[in-house]
Amino acid sequence: MSIVVNGKNIQWMKNETVEQLLKRMKYTFPLVVVKINEKVIPKKEFSKTIIPDRSKIDVIHMISGG
Amino acid sequence: MDKKKFEEIKRKLKKSSVGIAGLGGLGSNACISLARAGVGRFVLVDFDKVEESNLSRQYYFLDQIGKLKVDALKDNIKKINSDIIVETHNIKLIKGSMEKPFKDVDVVIEALDNAETKASFIEEILTKLPNKPIVAASGVAGYGHSDRIVTKRLGNLYMCYDEYAKSSEDDILVAPRVTLIANWEANLALEIILGENK
Predict the structure, then answer these.
(1) Predicted-complex ipTM score
(2) Which residues in chain A have Cβ-Cβ distances shorter than 8 Å to B141?
């Protein structure tokens, strides 16, 4: 009962949405892309998409600096 | 390397064009590397002037303080190769029209500073110029941790990425790391122009 988020193993939570997961991970940077098992999730689906158990999630965010 | 192949690469690079959004630590250094490599045309976009504090990492000099960055960088490119064509836009990129200066370049390099602006820029290029390769960078502040930097590819987006880096508001910006990532971006741009492993 776990998922991998950006290479880290964390506990899977039943019925958790992408939006809730991002909050739980405290990802507050502006997001570029969220992928679940290599599939890109559009921003407007973050509140509807449920994270399946054992999924691999990649969150690419933007950090200031240039 | 055989001469014919080398000549072909030179010709390909001379015909190529790169657009750069933001001429700070990332943009100025990536541009100079690509100019030295032989890229024939640049489209440079920045609204700012050179300040003394920029000299810790950006490709400008003491006698250029107060000059527009687009003009200062153009001068520096011309000192390396006077044949390079440089188109400059002294403008601030505004949401809704960010893609405009970059319509006719082969590759776009995102070299902006603010995280929100970086994310908006990438989104606009990907949606409005769907066939345009874009190289972007995130996590350039600080020093050390070179081996945390990775390239992430998502379709036409190539990200030089360190997810553990702090924001530039919470860490220093100095030449070694930002220049490293600037050259990482430049190197990716070459790979896109020439094709991998040539």
Answers:
(1) 0.86
(2) 63-65
